[in-house]
Amino acid sequence: MAAQFDRPSAEIAIMVADGVPTIRRRRLVGVFASMMRYASMDEEGHDGDMKRFVRTCGRSETVATALAVACGQGIDVTSESRVTAITDPDVVEGTRKAFIDHRGKPEYNANPVVDRDAEPIDSVRPSPRHEGLALYISQLVRSIWTTCIMRVEINPGLPPTLAPTIELEKLRGVQRNLNTLSDFLNRNKPFIEEEIALHGEHRAMNSLAQLINSIGEGISFVLVLFDERLEDILAVLREESRRKGRDLTFEQLFISAPGRELAKELVKAIVNRNIANGSNVDSVAEALRRRCGSFCSADDVVIFKAQEQVKRASEAGGQSETGRVLLNESQRLFQKVAGA
What we know:
Elements: E1 11-13, E2 22-24, H1 28-37, H2 45-57, H3 59-70, E3 75-77, E4 83-85, H4 89-101, E5 107-108, E6 124-125, H5 128-141, E7 150-153, E8 161-164, H6 168-187, H7 196-227, H8 230-235, H9 239-247, H10 250-255, H11 257-276, H12 281-291, H13 298-316, H14 321-336
Antiparallel strand pairs: 1-2, 3-4, 5-6, 7-8
Helix pairs in contact: 1-3, 2-3, 3-4, 3-5, 5-7, 6-7, 11-12, 12-13, 13-14
Pfam families: Nucleoporin_C
InterPro entries: Nucleoporin_Nup133/Nup155_C (IPR007187), Nucleoporin_Nup155 (IPR004870)
Domain Nucleoporin Nup133/Nup155-like C-terminal: 127-339
């Protein structure tokens, strides 16, 4: 179940007298989607199927699977024996309803004897809905999480080059799945009552929503790195930063402070390299903000502009009238973002 979105299902061809039929292992999302499409014939129908699924797999796994099918991960075999994604509106709506109706409830487990100074909101155990969402996110990113972003590729007769460890198309696929998940959550934001347990649940769910966005933008940043000439970008960094860059994992980039600090150095290197090649700082910074905004903030753009003014002033001569105008402008910009 953990790897069901990482690799294709196992397929076995069996030679028989009439031909070669193929058996394909069903993923849990496929089982769930079929259950939503074809109800059991007993009197309980869909409700009975759902209760049996929850008893078999647990409520958190049920929520994660419903979420996956609602986000387009369910597949089925057509009458022509072709594997196709399930987009039936009734199935999608049924899985959306399952995600909402079987989410469970958060629990408030205050124990004043254990910790008298603890905030009430910190004593909330999130619901299976939160656990299911976390589980689905982990299934989407498990194959890249601890992997280094880049690897050294050596070809005979050529200098070493840096290549992506994970195929870029696979990264784009993970990003598409995360974007679909984020859109689903935005469309289905439930009303949160202001009780302690539910407030704690909201905080936990909001943290996962922020994680989804962080991973999505992190993948965009990695794609930007490989769109540029990565060897030239690393070459302008300090030796320690170059070493850290070569060892940087997706996990560190997505969630760690050192990874984010290294990303800032890489962004600065990208901008400076493009400026050195004659590009306009506004167009370069705007492209970065559009693709991975959290890695290049509005303040960063102002800083890049200020640095460009200093560079132009140096070329014009600091004592010339043009140089003084450029230096005054750079000072104004630096003061504007001194807090950053």
